[in-house]
Amino acid sequence: MRLLFIGDVIGRPGRTVVCERLPKLRERWRLDCVVINGENSAGGFGISETICDELIQAGADAVTLGNHSFDQREAPVFIARQPRLVRPANYPPGTPGRGATVVETQGGARVLVVNVMGRVFLDAMDDPFTAVEREISACPLGAAADAVVVDVHAEATSEKQAFGYFLDGRASLVVGTHTHTPTSDHRILPGGTAYLSDAGMCGDYDSILGMQKDEPLRRFLQKTPGARLESAQGEGTLSGLAVETDDRTGLAKGVWPVRLGPHLEETWPRSWD
Ligand SMILES: [Fe+2]
Ligand SMILES: [Fe+2]
User: Fold this and answer.
1) How many angstroms does the Cα of residue 180 sit away from the middle of ligand 1?
2) Which residues touch 165 (CB under 8 Å, ≥6 apart)?
3) For the residues 9-27, what does the mean pLDDT come to?
4) Distances (CA, A) of 234 to 18, 66, 181
5) How many helices (DSSP H) and strands (DSSP E) are in the chain?
6) What residues are neighbours of ligand 1 (ion), with CB under 5 Å?
7) How far apart are CA 183 and CA 129, in angstroms?
8) When you count CB atoms within 10 A of the terminal residue's CB, does the N or C end of the chain come out lower?
9) How far away, in angstroms, is 247 Cα from ligand 1 center?
10) Relative to the alpha carbon of 199, which ligand is closest?
11) How far is the CA of 49 from the centre of ligand 2 (A)?
12) Contact between residue 259 and residue 266 where contact means Cβ atoms under 8 Å apart
């Protein structure tokens, strides 16, 4: 199977690059499943129902979230009726929405998509490892699922790497999100799980984490209240990871970074063209 994971979509430039490029990539690369992190897709903060539909329309089979899951007031309501939208599994019991979903590919394969949030340098959450264990054991790779994608939304690389090894051999892909900056450590772990510490963002990289530079810079220079953070509006880059899995085991056979757009060196799985 061919999977594409796309990192945090930031505001309009992120949505535009996804909507313009993904439908063509889906066809050109014959993608079986696409997962997009959409936690910043509404002006940098959260997601709306319209935007979620837009990402699904563009080719996302599932949309994951993070610490900004519920920034838009409508999110707790519409998340209940959108089975393709997944928020971190380690929110406290009773939080609206789901921490995992199973999507069916056109070929009839089942892909379990799990989202989880780290606890290092982020809000206090329930234990992420127990939460993922619960979701994975309810739908194990090679039995109930033909592929398993886990989006680890976390600040600390150590915590993301720990997740890679915790799930090695039990997930097709463990990929980090949240730092909005792609790392270059894409690889297949010894047990067969594809891993990347951070997928980067889909947004304008001439920015600070996708936001217009002036206000974040000012906040570092001066500890006084200031303006709202606004997403940068220049041309967006699509950033993520392509993974090929073994149809029998669901484990990874190949892994390639994807970066398409200005500011960063472009790269994609050339063998898929
Ligand atoms: Fe983000
Ligand atoms: Fe985040």
Assistant:
1) 6
2) 189
3) 98
4) 14, 24, 17
5) 6, 12
6) 8, 39-40
7) 22
8) C
9) 31
10) 1
11) 19
12) yes
Say if CB 55 and CB 36 are below 8 A apart: yes
Q: Is 180 a catalytic residue?
A: no
- How far apart (Å, rounded) are the C-alpha atoms in residues 146 and 140? 9
- 3-class SS of residue 11: helix
d(CA 56, CA 135): 23
Q: State the ligand closest to the CA atom of 41.
A: 1
- The DSSP bridge pattern shows strands 110-117 and 147-153 to be parallel
Question: What is the predicted pLDDT for the residue at 225?
Answer: 82
Cα gap 194→212, rounded to integer Å = 33
Catalytic pick among 68, 153, 180, 186: 68
Q: Show the tokens assigned to 141.
A: 């790779």
Q: Give the Å distance between the CA of 68 and the centre of ligand 1.
A: 7
Query: pLDDT per residue over 213-259, tens digit each?
Result: 999 999 999 988 889 999 999 999 999 999 999 999 999 999 999 99
Q: What is the pLDDT of residues 182-194, one digit of tens each?
A: 999 999 999 999 9
Q: Which ligand is nearest to the CA of 9?
A: 1
Residue 174's identity, in one-letter code, is V
Quote the strand ranges of 107-234, DSSP E: 110-117, 147-153, 173-177, 187-188, 194-196
Handedness of CA 27, 28, 33, 37 (dihedral sign): negative
